[in-house]
Amino acid sequence: MAEERAIALNDKNDKYGIVIDSGSSGSRIQIYKWSDPKTLLKSKSQSVLQSPPKIIQEPNWTKKISPGISTYNTNSKIKEIWSKHYSELMKFAEGIIPADKHGETPVFVLSTAGMRLLPKTTQNKILKETCSSIKKNTNFYLPDCSNFVQIIDGSTEGIYGWLGLNYLMGQFNNYDETLKSHQSIGFMDMGGASTQIAFVPSSPEQIKKHAEDLAKVTLRNVNGQTQSWDVFVATWLGFGANEARKRFLNQLINLSIVNEQTSNEINDPCLPKGATAEYGLDGKRYKIVGVGNYEMCTRTIYPLLMKAIPCQDEPCLFNGIHGPKLNFEKDKFIGISEYWYTANDIFQSGGEYNFKIFNQKVKEYCESDWGQILKNSEAGQYSNLDPDKFLKDACFKANWVMNILHDGFDLPRLGFEEEVKRATVKDHDITKVPVPFKSANSIEGEELSWTLGKILLFATSQIPPADSKDSLEIGIYPSEISRKSFVPGGISSKSSSSDYDSDDDDESGYGSLIYSIIFVLLLLFFLYHFGRSHFGKWGYKLRRLHMPISVRKSINSISSKIPYIGDYLRNWTSYEEIEQINLEEGLGDSSQKPVKPQSEANQHASILRTRSALALNEESEQDQNNTRVPNFMNKPFITKNGNGLFSESRESLPRLSSSSSLPRAKSAMD
């Protein structure tokens, strides 16, 4: 590995890449660097040749700005996207990446949860303005708006996270295509709005059985050999920690008989005793009163998992989503975001997960008096978290995490179920039982980030295949049942033009002409219907001016293509026909006005704020052999400080010195 390190020090061989994670709370830029694979081909090390290129991120190569890009949702704000949002991030990148490298440095702007909630037309306008402004104001490589500036769905984000995790764990190193299978680590992510899972089934039988449910993910080694992985990925919108809490409160209110004279109080078993909160539903305000009943909290949460919804095929995970059976004796998982924050920041139980220990801590917390919790908080026991924002919901979120893990994914209850199975063991030593799940925010100081997975795909897509007959492009081939499009690592012949690239500009000449015609027609409409009552004889003359059939047909043709306004135009022409019949036959009052159709009510989606990882300055010591040990069970993720508490937290995650530090900051929102 010494020769790879020496090559990496040569700036002429450096390649750079930029990924901007545009989430709901803000946009974060991540800058990465790797050595030109052509120079790495000179290496005599099989480990180097049979692995993807080493990707490096320095501790200060990330920056976040707020608010989220989804807040630029009006025409006037869209015009400010560059000046008030992306210009700051791109200037930051220009200060790090050498000027002579700008033209070859790709920039990906990938939006997530916040943008998914906006109307399609607004999404397209924001994406179009983002792409055009970066092209106009920078020299960075952005050849294809549809693939480089886009909104990614939850499944794609999940696979990017899986890629980043397994890269850091060294699972892609020393890849041998002659082997039938390679081990990988499963990825779990829980944000505020959604939860996701991505993993490769360990059983070849499961892979064969669920072939149509699996996405194919391809990478390329330095030597041009293609890696192929069959990955199952699923995302559950509404099953994130914040959204689940909202559904839980809705359930309590809907199941309660509220007396208006009792101030609409609702007892919450998942809120500590003495704590209160306010909550609004259907225009009413409710006072949520904590009763601190752990057992009842656990039982009341379970229906939210919606295990009763049937799947089209077995096995069924939850909420009607089918997937391969998880074998926790072989399948190992790492959970990030809420899996880490709740366990580490409040219960000091991050890292290896033991149900018995974690469950006992959660029970004690849930049944504690709110006044005592506040005293503990003032003493610094809960990572200095805001009590109202985080501590009130901690009991619910911890229960929800356990609910998802054990009842949703069937994770064994280590320390409880496993202890019963091993009751005949002489020393009853549970510590020797393999741990199938760990929560983490970083791996040896390198933060997990789905943006790393995206840049890994791009970097390997630039390597030509060793075999000219290799037709597999680098990227993500979605499962057959998803009916989604191929997600390329770089520029792909499979990709199609983006919708927003071909959208007609609202200010085009054709659009202006249409609007002018509509305006004139509406003006005549109001003159016709209101002028006769206010202008006396003019009204009589207007009533005598009937529309020719050809004009009515033209208006009806135009109105069929124009929502809402088209309804008025069609009513107008229909009224003309009815009035003519009435006047000729003497069958009705010609002054009767037509009834205008009622428009449907708009539905509004709420966006819940989620916590984000604030620690971005960690480093990890570079292994002297520059290799990653893939032994999952022997790699601790966190350490204890002198006080016996875990040192990594949301507020501050210390870094060790390393040039391979990969900061990770993910706003959870989904």
Helical coverage, percent range: 25-40%
Instruction: Look at the helices and sheets and give the structural class.
Output: alpha+beta
Weakly predicted, low-confidence segments: 1-9, 420-432, 501-511, 538-545, 572-630, 636-670
Provide the CATH architecture of the largest domain. Answer: 2-Layer Sandwich
Protein name: Golgi apyrase
Active site: 157 (proton acceptor)
GO biological process, one term: CTP metabolic process
Organism: Spathaspora passalidarum (strain NRRL Y-27907 / 11-Y1)
Give a description of the structure:
The protein is α+β, with helices and mostly antiparallel strands and 670 residues long. It folds into three domains: 2-238 and 444-494 and 611-634, Nucleotidyltransferase, domain 5 (2-Layer Sandwich), CATH 3.30.420; 241-314 and 354-434, no CATH class; 509-585, no CATH class. The protein is built from 24 helices and 20 strands. Strand 9 (215-220) and strand 10 form a beta hairpin. Helix 5 (81-94) packs across helix 7, helix 12 crosses helix 17 (394-408) and helix 21 (509-534) crosses helix 22 (537-544). Residues 1-9, 420-432, 501-511, 538-545, 572-630 and 636-670 have low confidence and may be disordered.
